[in-house]
Structure formats: structure tokens, C-alpha cells
Write a structure and sequence with these properties.
heterodimer, A: about 375 residues, alpha+beta, Extracellular Endonuclease, Chain A, six-stranded antiparallel sheet, 7 helices, B: about 140 residues, mainly beta, Dihydrofolate Reductase, subunit A, seven-stranded mixed sheet, three-stranded antiparallel sheet, about 15% helix
């Protein structure tokens, strides 16, 4: 309810500002500030923003942002595709020395969120929000399969974790604003961009807000080249409000790429890159033993005498026998394997697994058995 | 010295000169394990402990050069590799999440110099599951 209320307030704010703008003229910054103050008179405070002052928009640009939904915060600020280096194996690159291009008036210690209208090709534009704990979700994510973003294909590759090349990628992640099947917030994105590119930043912002109760100004802009239906990537910007970016400050571009897959960004067609010179590792081949002896490692549950430990929903599952023998850093990760499945899991009750028949082993051992990482629970 | 660090799933520590994450209960755990010892940290980390008293916190940006054998050093934003020989034990807190990173924990745990002695898991204030690993030198 609170979230709906905040959205309504944001909508009213936009309406009031649009109605107050003389036709064909820019609005001066003070008018925008006054309107904002008026709407939030008791709640909203100015936040100093020395770093973004270097790149602050002109007042005319602010007017454009507020009156032309198709260019909300993107037309003036979005990174040009020509400025982005070609994908070279890392999921994201830093833009503008990590300094986001928010204006002072974007920042608020009151939560709000906004999702730009789809453009003439049906593509997402910009989504931005001032995220506080009050608009973060308290329920599990709902279904989003009804949305078919531009460039959408249901296509699978064995080389892609979880098989499916494309995900419905939230511009603003569900964990931050709780948006489900909002077509203004979902684009076609590769698994790689979703998990390796965007998710780490979403995690960082989510945890910061949860820990501090502060707000984070957050904006995600998909970057399309020409009339392409598939974005080349997304620009992600964020700045923590109450501490003026001391906790969170970034401006990055996440590539909508997938290693070993070539993608036609015009329509989303794709094909696996077959490199005859590269031999894929044979995960079924016997692996050499690590010969360095290691002592038993006692795994204890904090403040608990029990030695029979239960797996956690997230993170590294705990031991059932109280000990592990890590051979290397990667082998410190313990996984669950079902009696018959072809995946290994982070918990022993993933999907239809029978927890009583699940067994524990190191991730390395699971890989050596030819098992693949489960995309549902990791 | 006894080193304490917090890392993500890829051993990242900071991004854009900012810690990847923080948690009040991790700080509490750090104070518990270092009780009775000096706990060194630099000015960046000390901001997290501004309301803490009755602990032997020593704030010094040169801590890695000054810490003695039994002193704890909480390091969030410094390269550590050059001091590896001075470290006799490490507490590695794992967030069990993936964050962006441009600075990583730079001591290899794969080169047989270190062995995992124990590990406990605890629920953080804002993290569902934090793992505290204790690594000792492999002799």
C-alpha cells in the first residue's frame, strides 16, 4: 500500500509540474524545486550532492525529463553506444569514473520509483527510483512470464548456465522495488548480463539499504543501437542519499553479452560460437588427486551444541557430519546432490529433491561427476 | 598478526573504493574474537565502530606495519600480499553473495600455505548467512 501511495505521489508530482510548464518554454530550476518541496513539504529535504554537481543537468533538461516520458532521464544522460568499449570478457565497465549523473533534485530521502514509457518500438526506456526499505518487497517474486520484451526468444544452449540464453531482466531488480510483470521494467537480457553483470550491483544496493535504512538513488537505462530490439546493455547508476555517496556510488555499463554466443542485436537471433581450436574441458575425465594432506576441519554452528546441522536457504550449506576436508579454496564450497539428478544444489530441498536422499560433497567433486550447477538455487 | 577480512564469492573486497557490504553482527563477531587483543583498523574502517567502546580498537592507517603477533588487523581496503609473512592466522568472513569488485583479497588460499582450521556460520543483521573461516598456516 505504502508503495502504491508513493507511486501516486510521484505521479501527482509529475502532473503538477507538467501543468505548470508554459508551452514551448523551459522551466527554471527553482520552479521544479518549489514544486517538489511543496509536494513533500514535511518529508523531503535537500541533499547535498557535490559529486553530481559536476555533471548536473541544466534546468531545461530537467523539464525534458519530467515532461517527455520517452526520454525520462535517458535522453540527456544515457551513455552513447559509441562511448562504450567493446565487450572484452568482463561483464561490466566503469563509466565516468563511477560518478552517476543525477541532479540534486533527483535525490530524496523519501522513496519513490518511476518507470519510463515504452518507446515507439515497444522498448523499455529508463527506470529510476529513490529506493528505501519501505518500497522493498516483503514477498517472494511473482510470475513474469506473461511479458515478452522486445527481442525476446526462448532459446537454450548447453554452454549457458541454466541453459536459457535470455532472461526477462528487471531494470530495477525485484529485490529493490518489488516489481513483477511490469513491461516497463523488463528487457530481454542474457543470463550472463543478468547474473554476472547486474545482480552484483543489485545485491550491493539491497544490502546497503537493509543495513543502514538509508536511501539509494538508482537508475537503469537500457542502451539500444538504432532500432535494434535487443539492448547492447544497460547503464546502471546509483548513489546513496543520506551519506552523499559514501556508501554506494557507481556508474557502470553491463554488457548484454553471453560468452561463446554471438548475438544479433537487431532482432535477438543468436548462435553458438564454435571454436575448433578450443577443446572444451572433459568434466567426466578423472581428475588428479590433490596430494597435499589437509587436517580435518571442524565445522561448528555458532552457539549451538548440535553437530547435525541443517542447510540454509542461501549461502554455503552446512555439514551433516561435522567435518570437511578442503583440498583447495574451491573445494571449501559444499553442495548437495540428489540421488538421481544431473545438477548439484546449494540446498537439499531444491525442486523435487528428497532431502533424506541428498548427499553432501564438495563442488569440485560434483563437477568431476559431470554434474552441473542448478540455476534455481544458486 | 591475525588478519580479519570480509569477502564476496569471488574474493572481492571493495568496488570504487567502497566496501562491498557491512553488517552489524559481523562487527559484533569481530569484537568478540578479538577481545583481549588489540584490534587494529584504519580510519576508513573505524567509521563503522564509532559507537563502540570498551574494546581495544587502535585506529592507525599504518596498521599492517605496526601490528604485532597477537594483534588483530581488520582490513577492508588494503592490499595484503606484501604482509603475508607477518600473518599467523586469518579470519575470513564470507558474505556468501556476489558483489561488484575492483579490489580483491590478494593472498592465495590455493598455494598450500594456508589450511582451513574451522568455519562457523551465523545470521547477520542484513545478511542471511555469513561464514567465518579461520585459516592457519600449513606447517
Amino acid at each position: 500500500m505504502n508503495k502504491i501511495k508513493k507511486s501516486l505521489i510521484a505521479g501527482m508530482l509529475l502532473l503538477v509540474i507538467v501543468l505548470s510548464i508554459p508551452t514551448g518554454c523551459g522551466i527554471d530550476d527553482s520552479t521544479y524545486k518549489y514544486t517538489s518541496k511543496d509536494m513533500y513539504s514535511d518529508e523531503m529535504t535537500d541533499v547535498s550532492n557535490s559529486e553530481s554537481e559536476k555533471t548536473v543537468n541544466t534546468s531545461t533538461e530537467d523539464t525534458t525529463r519530467l515532461t517527455d516520458n520517452t526520454n525520462v532521464l535517458s535522453g540527456q544522460n544515457a551513455i552513447a553506444i559509441t562511448q562504450i568499449p567493446e565487450y572484452s570478457g568482463t561483464p561490466y565497465v566503469v563509466i565516468n569514473n563511477n560518478i552517476p549523473q543525477f541532479s540534486d533534485t533527483d535525490l530524496s530521502n523519501v522513496s519513490y520509483e518511476y518507470y519510463g514509457e515504452l518507446d515507439r518500438l515497444g522498448r523499455c526506456t529508463t527506470a529510476y527510483a529513490c529506493i528505501g526499505k519501505d518500497i522493498m518487497p516483503t514477498e517472494e517474486r511473482g510470475k513474469i512470464g506473461s511479458v515478452k520484451p522486445t527481442g525476446w526468444h526462448t532459446v537454450k544452449y548447453d554452454i549457458v548456465e541454466g541453459k536459457y540464453l535470455y532472461n526477462r531482466c528487471h531494470l530495477i531488480g525485484y529485490q529493490l522495488t518489488g516489481e513483477n510483470a511490469n513491461n516497463k521494467n523488463l528487457i530481454t537480457g542474457t543470463r550472463y548480463m543478468n547474473v554476472e553483470g547486474m545482480l552484483p550491483f543489485e545485491n550491493m544496493v539491497e544490502d546497503y539499504i537493509s543495513e543502514t535504512n538509508n536511501h539509494v538513488m538508482y537508475r537503469v537505462t537500457p542502451v539500444f543501437e538504432g532500432d535494434n530490439l535487443l539492448a547492447n546493455g544497460v547503464q546502471m547508476e546509483a548513489k546513496s542519499v543520506e551519506d552523499s555517496g559514501e556508501g554506494i556510488l557507481f556508474n557502470v555499463f553491463c554488457y548484454n553479452a553471453q560468452p561463446h554466443v554471438t548475438i544479433n542485436y537487431a532482432n535477438g537471433d543468436s548462435a553458438e560460437i564454435i571454436d575448433e581450436t578450443v577443446t572444451k574441458p572433459d568434466v567426466t575425465a578423472p581428475q588428479p588427486d590433490i596430494t597435499v594432506p589437509q587436517p580435518d576441519v571442524t565445522v561448528q554452528q555458532d552457539n549451538a551444541a548440535a553437530t547435525q546441522l541443517q542447510p540454509q536457504d542461501d549461502g554455503i550449506p552446512q555439514q551433516t557430519d561435522g567435518s570437511v576436508q578442503p583440498k583447495s579454496q574451491s573445494d571449501t564450497v559444499q553442495v548437495w546432490v540428489s540421488a538421481t539428478g544431473s545438477k548439484y544444489h546449494s540446498r537439499n530441498d531444491c525442486g523435487n529433491m528428497n532431502p533424506d536422499k541428498a548427499t553432501r560433497m564438495s563442488e569440485g567433486d560434483a563437477i568431476n561427476m559431470g554434474l552441473e550447477k542448478c540455476s534455481k538455487c544458486w | 598478526m591475525i588478519l580479519c577480512v570480509a569477502v564476496d564469492d569471488k574474493m572481492g573486497m571493495t568496488f570504487n573504493r567502497r566496501r562491498q557490504s557491512k553488517d552489524a553482527l559481523l562487527r559484533k563477531k569481530l569484537l568478540e574474537i578479538s577481545k583481549g587483543h588489540r584490534l587494529y583498523m584504519n580510519n576508513y574502517s573505524a567509521k563503522q565502530f564509532e559507537n563502540v567502546s570498551d574494546y581495544n580498537i587502535v585506529v592507525d592507517d599504518e596498521m599492517l606495519d605496526k601490528a604485532c603477533d597477537e594483534d588483530f588487523c581488520f582490513v577492508e581496503n588494503l592490499p595484503i600480499k606484501g604482509y603475508e609473512q607477518l600473518i599467523n592466522k586469518m579470519f575470513i568472513f564470507r558474505w556468501n553473495r556476489l558483489y561488484p569488485a575492483d579490489m580483491f583479497f590478494d593472498i592465495s588460499l590455493d598455494d598450500n600455505n594456508w589450511i582451513l582450521d574451522s568455519a562457523i556460520e551465523f545470521e547477520g543483521n542484513s545478511h542471511k548467512n555469513i561464514t567465518m573461516e579461520e585459516w592457519i598456516r600449513y606447517e
